[in-house]
UniProtKB/TrEMBL annotation:
Residues 141-223, 366-446 form the RCK C-terminal domain. This is Trk system potassium uptake protein TrkA. Transmembrane segments: none annotated. It comes from Segatella cerevisiae. Keywords: Ion transport, NAD, Potassium, Potassium transport, Transport. PANTHER family: POTASSIUM CHANNEL PROTEIN 2-RELATED-RELATED, TRK SYSTEM POTASSIUM UPTAKE PROTEIN TRKA.
């Protein structure tokens, strides 16, 4: 597959690294030679120092024969224009990053498709959705509602109070139990568990269940003492915070601490009245105490500085906040943040890259998520008629090592999957993969 990426910034370089490992034919365009040199020496891809808004450049990069053109520069207008040009030259699919939330509503998306842009991504909105999903339950590190909650994935840090530790999974998570444990992160190791594996203290376990059994999961993992999130404090009032605050669940109240006085004025203009904007430093303990940190169930740090976010979350935890969320833009810090028990970690680049990655798959793929803490992928596949996955029961399909099926949705009903499950064409199937290229999995669904 021939893929052209315009913009050697965070999203572009992450995608280029990911796709080059999959032996895709990648060309990375950027006007900055230094940025191209940093990535070009270590990965199998072509680099082109040029302006992606030039027809000559796009032709030289191979746009007429491209399967996918991705524009993720810092210039929104350049992204839109180069996508339109690439499509006109013959690129099969185009996707562009935008900064204007107006562009991603349904009517605008249809308008841009007519111009030749197949998909638009607004990373701040994607990150805001993940933040708000994580705030729905203070005792959960990560939550993913699939088909409006027909199935739910919960990432939970297990403590000594968990009732299901040190027992073989075959005894606590069998075909008739209302949950499956589909992945476990243990220190620096990710496990796709089998029946003989056991859960241990401080594991980060990923549960697949249905919404009506969430209270049961909460009980068996020993999290009933955790308060539900009613009051949440944000540090940093950038675009990600603004998107999250504007879509915050109705039953939550929020305060946002922003160090820039001019930005505070802007936030006061655009945020709803239930959000209090405070001018100050979110690392100031006296300010946090004055603003009621002791009555806050969640603290969300979204400044542009990863170290600041991590330190602020540690401070909030020391002051008694159980639920913390940190924006970690530096991927090298993700492991450290997890070891410090920060809580939910958000990285806009990885979230946006996953959204783009699903466009590369030939099978019908509704969604792709990357579990940063577990270094694993989750994808929602829809099997076609006569595909391999529909010919046998799950236990007889011989899926690759490192792959497990967590559940499926048939019609509007979510159900867990066991070895005896027969998957049918049209089902939405949730697949967990560790160290497996999703391109190798899609052949089972085509």
């Amino acid at each position: 597959m021939r893929i052209i990426i315009a913009g050697a910034y965070a999203i572009g370089t992450y995608l280029a690294k990911l796709l080059s490992r999959n032996n895709e034919d990648i060309t990375l365009i950027d006007e900055d030679a230094e940025r191209l040199t940093e990535i070009g020496e270590d990965y199998d891809l072509l680099t082109l120092e040029a302006n992606p808004g030039s027809i000559k450049t796009l032709k030289e990069a191979g746009a007429p024969d491209a399967d996918l053109y991705i524009a993720v520069t810092k210039d929104e207008a350049l992204n839109l224009n180069s996508c339109i040009l690439a499509k006109a030259l013959g690129a099969k699919k185009t996707v562009g990053k935008v900064d204007n939330p107006e562009y991603i509503d349904k009517d605008s998306q249809n308008f841009f498709r007519k111009l030749g842009i197949d998909s638009l991504i607004f990373p701040e909105r994607l990150a805001a959705q993940d933040i708000n999903d994580s705030l729905k339950m203070s005792w959960v590190r990560q939550r993913w509602d699939i088909h409006e909650g027909a199935l739910v994935m919960l990432g939970i840090k297990l403590r000594e109070s968990c009732q299901i530790l040190h027992q073989p999974l075959k005894d606590i998570s069998g075909p008739d139990d209302p949950y499956h444990i589909v992945a476990v992160r243990r220190k620096d190791q990710t496990i796709i568990p089998g029946g003989n594996d056991k859960l241990e203290d401080y594991d980060l376990a990923y549960f697949m269940t249905t919404e009506n059994y969430i209270p049961y999961i909460r009980k068996i993992v020993g999290k009933e003492s955790y308060e539900d999130v009613r009051n949440v404090m944000f540090m940093g009032g950038g675009e990600t915070a603004l998107s999250a605050l504007n879509t915050l669940p109705e039953d939550m109240k929020a305060k946002v601490i922003e160090s820039d006085e001019e930005r505070c004025e802007k936030l006061n203009e655009v945020l709803n009245k239930k959000t209090l904007v405070i001018h100050g430093d979110g690392r100031d303990i006296s300010l946090l105490q004055e603003e009621g940190i002791d009555n806050t169930q969640a603290f969300v740090a979204l400044t542009p500085n990863t170290e600041t976010n991590i330190l602020a979350c540690l401070t909030a935890k020391r002051l008694g906040v159980r639920k913390t969320v940190a924006m970690v833009e530096n991927i090298d810090y993700i492991g450290m943040a997890e070891n410090l028990d920060i809580g939910t970690l958000i990285n806009k680049q990885i979230i946006a890259a996953c959204h783009i990655y699903q466009m590369l798959l030939d099978a019908d793929v509704m969604d792709v998520r990357f579990l940063m803490n577990a270094n694993a992928d989750v994808a929602e596949f829809i099997p076609k008629k006569n595909s391999k996955i529909t010919r046998k029961r799950v236990k007889d399909v011989e899926l690759p090592k490192g792959v497990t099926i967590g559940g499926l949705i048939r019609g509007q009903e979510g159900m867990l999957v066991s070895g005896n499950t027969q998957i049918e064409p049209g089902d939405s199937v949730i697949v967990f993969c560790y160290h497996i290229n999703l391109k190798k999995i899609e052949k089972f669904f085509n």
